[in-house]
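Form 7-S
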Amino acid sequence: MAYAVENGLRVLWLTRTGSQVSHISKEVSALPVYGRRMVCIHETVSKIDLRRFNSTCRAVRRAGRCPYWPGLPRALKPPLTAKEVRELGRRFEVCPHDCLIASLYSTKIVAATHMQLASIGWLLSKWRAKREKTILILDEGQHIVKTALSMVRDSISIRAIEKASREALKYGFRELGEDINEAVERCRSILSVDGEAEVEDLLPDIDELVTAGEEIQDAKLKEGYVPASYILSLADFKISLRGANPILVREGRSIRLEAPADPVESLKSVYDGWYATVTMSATISGELLESLTGREAILLRAGWPYEEENLTAYIVKGLTTKFEKRDETLINDMAWTIDLAVKRGLKSLIFFPSFELLEKSLARASRAKDVVAESPGLDQEEVEKIISEYLEDSKKTLISVYNGRLAEGVDLSANLVICLGIPFAPPTARQQALIKRLSEVLGDEKKARVYGQIVPAVWSAIQAAGRAVRGPTDRATVFLVDDRYRNILRLLPRWFSERIVKTVALNDLAIALGEVA
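Output:
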């Protein structure tokens, strides 16, 4: 920070969650720039889902229906939590987000979330800052790389597209509604089981969607409704396709379309043009980052911040979640593991590679009633309710999935963590395309498979395990349950691998759990 000040530079510090933004704001006196929806105090607009929020907010403001806009925004002095920003907005009767933007002019250090990268040009223009005179800090940078490796620019659920069809029909756009519904029916007929496939883009033209969506917004305003439009959400997704065919993905009851993206292009759009970019991560590979961005990487690695006794780890052999091994025996073993953890009576976390395995195992566990479990499609309020229920009971067991809402970015102090399986991406056409692209960049197919398939899975497992120790007084024992962990020890972060005491057999898991304090 001192270097930036001395050289007339600005600092943009991006991290994953709003709570982390609050923490950074407090530590370095940075101005927190929370998303507009996060600090919205409009009684009804604030409840609109994130996908439709921005267009709804704009329409309400343009129509003069927001009591807090335009108002008289006043600069705020950091540090500030999102709750404090909302309270100040209510006190001054002004849009809280506009107060944050008004505060940009007098600050040299800004903290925000990774989501701001989607509108980074807008943020810099409001800040009157230039990339070449700004230092970008990417906190938890492995998530930026992981997102790029997912090869997904945007996604929209089939359920949301169905709502767009009904919306069009309700407001007199019959042909448009029928065209959208035809696309939905076609998508539903393609995949009958979990998987993914590239499909033809059957969605209507962007101009047609935008025109209808804006007219529907006007009609809803006249009717006294919040002008949220699923058709405009569909238009946003169509724009993100950039002329490519979408990828259809089915996971259980969830079906969605995804807009594909090139991982190299995605990372370069993040890293290019800044005075300097500092990536903070305990797991990211410098070689991979430099290969994908074409520039020297500045990495800050944080070691284990607590004492050695805060974390102990075991590897458990005798179980694997390989796709070809997902049979009845695996489900029974996982259900048995849930019962063991509950019986032990410790505050416990159990993570699964997928909701499908979680739900099947939980259905067979005899102590299922004693656990709290994440399920697909939860909203933030439901997630917070699960967290509260877990934290209020000193002997509660919480079950979630890798990469889920409860596996990253939340504090879930626990005595015991069981990581069932390794969350490898399924062997799909997209995964093959990723390996091919990385092979071109790295010049080595073996390295491409390590960085494109194995390393992201390792990141996910360690992130999940890390939920348990969130402070110096926490003590946790982690069990990595899968035969394959023994073969990838060198890819685990050193601070974690140094705390693995031994390998035990699945049949001896009950004995090992009995040793956990």
